[in-house]
Amino acid sequence: MNAIEFPAPDPAIMARRAEIVAALADRVGEQGLITDPRELVPFETDAFTAYRRVPLAVVLPESTAEVSAVLKYCSGNRVPVVPRGAGTSLAGGAIPQEDAVVIGVSRMNRILEVDHDNRTATVQAGVTNLAISERVAADGFFYAPDPSSQLACTIAGNIAMNSGGAHCLKYGVTTNNLLGATVVLADGTVVELGGKALDAPGLDLLGVLCGSEGQLGIVTEATVRLLARPEGARPVLFGFASSDEAGRCVSDIIGAGIIPVAIEFMDKPAIEICEAFAQAGYPLDVEALLIIEVEGSEAEMDAMLKRIIAIARRHGVASIKESQSATEAAQIWKGRKSAFGATGRIADYICMDGTVPLGQLSHVLRETYRIVDGYGLRVANVFHAGDGNMHPLILYNVNDPAEAEKAEAAGADILKLCVDAGGCLTGEHGVGMEKRDLMGHQYAEVDLDQQMAVRAAFDPGWILNPAKVFPLDLPARKAG
Amino acid sequence: MAETEQLTPQSEDEACAMVAEQRAGKRTLAIAGAGSKAVIGQPTTADATLSSTGLRGIVEYNPEELVIVARAGTPLAEIEAALAGNNQMLAFAPPDWGRLLDADAGQTIGGVAATNLSGSRRLSAGAARDALLGVRFVNGRGEAVKSGGRVMKNVTGLDLVKLMAGSWGALGLITEVAFKVLPRPASETTLLIRGADDAAAARLMARAMATSAEVSAAAHLPARVAETVVGEGPATLLRLEGFADAIAERIGRLEPALETDLALEEIGETASRAAWAAIGDGAPFADGQGIVWRISAAPMAGHAIVGDVRAMTRGEAYYDWQGGLIWLRLAGEDPQAALVRGAVARNGGGHATLIRAPEAVRAQTPTFQPEAPAIGALSERIRASIDPDGVFNCGRRSFQAERDAA
Asked: How many structural domains is chain A composed of?
């Protein structure tokens, strides 16, 4: 399968490999440098595994100064750089190219400061997402964005992709929880953006950096906002006889002024896959399942659930199951958060990530089934219904090139459907390589030209993650 | 300000044509909405004013989707009325500085986006920039550009929405905005603690925010300010919003966690709303007297900054955002920018914005905090990538000093 194009490696750079490697060794030392072909293999792809390229070299710096030295060298010598967190991108955001140096942040993994009174944590960017919440849990705090890969994914990667998670309906995504960052620009310049204050002065550089997919700079340290942990949390399972009815129930809950902390949706194929993996107690006799989580004291949760249950009954809810213990609650979330992994055990899949207006959920679901059916494939839907962020998992066999092509085509059709319904290509996974060539469906050329012009203000030589986000054949890009 | 020509396009297409024409004629444009905050920033020297007020109307609003899309010149009052009709709101609580700045023209929704100003609930619900889901704008080439959209989660492409939020007209004319909205809380109560000094209040607010009581706003008013808002004696205010039964529960958890012997009282809904409106709107300083600064800092640093300033000059202050937003008023007409910004820098950093000062003073004082050279240079490159010929808003923003130097 080679539908997505990689730029041809620059022969001049490939010819200078030995010289480049020596220069990198000068800057990060042997312990921070990987050049052995076998040791480079783990860096050839990320979680978008259908595409892979072994990079020229991998550097794993230990400090902002080392990142700066490497970037200064690479930009001065026009060597492409692919930044890497934990390599969990589902969109191919961290897939290298053969003439690129990968800069990984994994060795910068210390929590530098926890400040309870100001409710901030300052961390090196290679710290994992979950490590922050784990560090502050005993003191009653947590870090809100919770992507399913939170055990592995890094804050650097979260910032690069503006990661979300199941609970961002209430707490927002990364950009809403990031207060400051130390950033190394393409030419090696180090800038400090924001800090512990809520608002930053001047242009919102932190805002444009967040979600820029490693194209504006490399984040080496970050200050994130901590929140007080709720008194308690209780996920409740609501089973429905149809996906349509579940979708309408979501609209009505939100329309009634109730914002639960999470509303997750699974259709029947997803329920079966996740239940087989996690034994979470999901009902198997329904067509659609909502996991709705409420927070607060027992009395507050009871009161909110009462309101939600009344709405669900109006939509003919077939089964309601409240978690009775922390263990049961954990099982329910384990099932949901391992949905992608569990799916991967039974088939290869590609996961789409379009967001649609809430009122379009039912329509988009119906059309999704129709599209995938049309290609003769199967789909499992598991997604963040509260904010309209769909995640259809299209199942296929990676060893069957014809089927792989169909899966990609079905995915593209679904994303166009999302855009046409008033939504967007990607809600939280990022554009990366995967959706790069679909950008023209959401944005006019003038929109992309403006984005690229801003990008060039940060990285005029286009050395940072160059083959991502923007279609390779845009006239302005070719000219640049 | 000298009288300048006013351009009021009635459509985005017309706005594009006007910008292109001005650009071709090498003329400069100052961007404006209703003009409610025109007195913030360096006095401008543009050849003409480009106003969004001809671009009016709500484009799309389905309450169950929690999003409202409107043309930039739509009055904020119209937006808020439409939302209130469906029991919804802009959660960041855009402040109304009409009285503070002696401007009675009202605000436009585009101006709210372009200035990224948020009220007290910013502490818990995020800023205007967090709620802004999408914009359309006209750049300095006279092109209509779209960024973001109207869905709540969107990471498709570079987030130019964040650049436009708080750009103060330096990058382009916003023509349309999409804001996330939220249900209005069913009720609210404010827990008021009487008698804390500034430092003790900072600790009380930190303790409150460390609880699970979901305090949605936290402010401290020293005695002189408190008198005009909630009566005699220093007052620390903690706001709780939601269903009445839940609020009672949460206050039950909050009170013991404060570990204070000071007197606690509960303020009911009507008085609570009035108090928070006064705090966000800068009402305590709306009598026209003195220079007003608005300082953003780490919450625990707020009282130290004010202490430093007051050790050196005459002034008074109050605090919002758990102490991290300082409203500072200095007596007289000298903004003492070096003194104020020096105090901020010595206490962990942050930034100070000059909100109210006579025009002659503003001409001499950077309104927006000057930034580190590397950040200023980067900001200037970004500005040039959106408005290469510098059509917009000469001089209003401080980073444009870099442009003049370049």
From this structure: 5
